[in-house]
């Protein structure tokens, strides 16, 4: 037994602390100056993140971040769900400085990487916010300040990802810019497409050297991120025609790739919806169309093996028909699918048992993403070290 005079070796202290959740580590920073320096150190932050991402610990420390509107007030709130049990661990309001924002403002989760969450707030001029829910640290990105001679610049959407080459976090912004000299017209107005990138390490915006292809963002701006590639659901221009597909941005090489959607199951005379998620670290497509007579949905799930190659889409399985389902929200283990029904309830569908479970979440779910807690700070731009990808 240790006495009050005995001191544990530093290596053993580190190993013990690595097993603790972020909330405990933040508390233990007050124990002494040496512990505060240790927990704030980039080396320990990296080790803690990697420890949480090991195969044995990943599901224990991972979970989901769910944005929803409360039934009583209609306010936006964020709930954390534990991965294995799907138990709600906590619910919190929109992060500061956005408490009490108007209810009509739309809040979108762009993506979550290594505990950092990117939010896109459509509040007049779009605000982009980086947020660490575990430490409650936020960073409102500055406006780019980059001017274009043509003027009339419109932000179409944003993406958030990790650059494995530079070990940096990046936000990419898709722009549509009026150009009177463009050869292509949309409703007799000429546009060209550009992109800007914000790097957390530098805290500034710059233009992307490679040009963005012509596209129309699909209604709903469905997005997903995996392994250094951020993708949007879009209609891609090929000569004078547009084809449904995905527009992808390589965070390391800063180039765009386009992939046409697969043939089959995508055309429905009653209308087809397409949403992208990540399943087994692959961009996966969920298409679903409603039979208006029976009010039933069938879901078709595809995965993309190689960006830019239409033939690499593989069809995995079909779910349904299901009644009263509004849209899917994402995947859980064993290819189970989170769903939102027409009453705004969060459901879980198990395809092997063909069973639907109501998760009894008090609120109307809007978006759901995988999430892992981390100590990564948004204030340390220039000393980012290797942190991997959740």
Automatic annotation (TrEMBL):
Report what the protein is called: F-box domain-containing protein
**Which InterPro entries does the record associate with it?**
F-box-assoc_dom_typ1, F-box-assoc_interact_dom, F-box-like_dom_sf, F-box_dom, SCF_F-box_component
* Xref: Pfam families: F-box, FBA_1
Residue ranges of domain F-box in the record: 2-48
Say which domain of life the source belongs to: Eukaryota
Stored PANTHER family: BNACNNG10540D PROTEIN (PTHR31672), F-BOX PROTEIN CPR30-LIKE (PTHR31672:SF13)
Question: Record's NCBIfam families?
Answer: F_box_assoc_1 (TIGR01640)
Against PROSITE patterns, the record matches this protein to: FBOX
